[in-house]
Known about the structure:
Blueprint lengths: L3 H4 L35 E7 L1 E2 L3 E2 L1 E5 L3 H4 L4 E3 L5 H10 L3 H6 L4 H17 L3 E12 L2 E4 L2 E5 L1
Antiparallel strand pairs: 1-4, 1-6, 2-3, 4-5, 6-7, 6-8
Helix pairs in contact: 3-5
Amino acid sequence: MGGRPNSGRCLRGLRGDTFERSPRSPDADIEGVLVQPQIEDGVEALVGAPTDPEFGPLVAVGPGGTLVELLDERALRVPPITTEETTDAIADAHRDALLAESAADAAALAHLLVRVGDLAVELQSVAELDLNPVLVSEDGVAVVDALVRNR
């Protein structure tokens, strides 16, 4: 469901413990709702696990959000990877200075990269994993959007 915030299917700014049906779809068959906090600030990063025909699963990190299309600064590593390797990848993708400047939790991003690498190695059924954007703040990481493509 692309463009969720602008589709009328995503409600923002809900307060309290109840919500009302949308006047646009009063008879909609609602099977459930997903409520999650809206994250306001953080350094946007892309974390992914593409599959290369030669190397197999990879771990990717780079600028996230709208910057992914503008900046070709992603770094790739072959998993499994260590925290030290992820720290190097973050630096290669030019995310380290931004993280330090904003007091964002670079260790949390490094840990996420290690875990994504582990997942890419363990789940051979996953052809591609794209977490974009991942917001990195002083409170840790928040995956805002995810795409998983199976083989």
